[in-house]
Amino acid sequence: MVEISASILSIKNEEAIKTLYNLETAGINYFHIDVMDGKFVKENTSDRMIEYCEYINSISNLPLDVHLMVDDVKSYINSFLAFEPNIITFHLEAGKTKEEIFEWINLIKENNVKVGISIKPNTNIKEIYDYLPFIHMVLVMTVEPGKGGQELIPDTIEKIKELDKYVKENNLEIDIEADGGINTENVSLVKEAGANIIVSGTAITASENFKETVEKLINN
Ligand code: DX5
Ligand code: ZN
């Protein structure tokens, strides 16, 4: 059964409390926390995401799915460990060496948090294979990281298929999360390709009925 991780990047600040409550009651599985540093990507959402994490942890038991789109991965890992997230995902493209990537993997694991690695649309899926035995999830970006409300890039579906095939052939226990531009129309393509966790932001938060949209994302 696919799980839904709702991105809160595009929620209106003045309606945040209501929106977060409505998302929780809509039946999502995770809050997807999009942390941007203004360097790895143009936007800087750090302060807002810290505020939302503090609030979510005070009103909800839903797990946090933290997506770091940052250059200084180590310092952001330490900042977001404070919210006891379910998983922290960093970008493969932020690592300069294999040692650095494994340092980040171990830092997250030592704090009993699951590890995810994300790749941008233009990064070859094979570049992540060496790390798969050591992590819990691959976050395949189906849009360029940096903002919500974009169109899904069709070529990224093939990457999910290739990754799913490799994971199955090597008997790996790995979640595949797809992130960006996913809605009730294209979600079936993403699931058939092999993604078992779906990130959806605008498709849910811009819809009239969150619960109905979440159900369609799960069942379509
Ligand atoms: C983009 C973020 C995504 C995005 C998803 O950089 O990583 O999580 O907010 O939002 P939608 O579903 O609106 O593309
Ligand atoms: Zn994201």
Please provide a brief summary of the model.
This protein is α/β, with parallel strands linked by helices. The chain has a single domain, classed as Alpha-Beta Barrel (TIM Barrel), CATH 3.20.20.
Description:
With 220 residues, the chain is of the alpha/beta class. It has one domain: TIM Barrel. The chain contains eight helices and eight strands, in the order βαβαβαβαββαβαβαα. It has helices spanning 16-25, 46-59, 73-81, 98-110, 155-169, 187-193, 202-205, 210-219, and strands spanning 3-7, 30-36, 64-69, 87-91, 114-119, 137-141, 175-179, 197-200. It has an eight-stranded parallel β-barrel, surrounded by six helices. Helix 1 (16-25) packs across helix 2 and helix 5 runs parallel beside helix 6. The longest helix has 15 residues, at 155-169. The N and C termini lie close together (12 Å). Residues 7, 9-10, 32, 34, 67, 69, 143, 145-150, 179-182, 199-203 line the site of D-xylitol-5-phosphate.
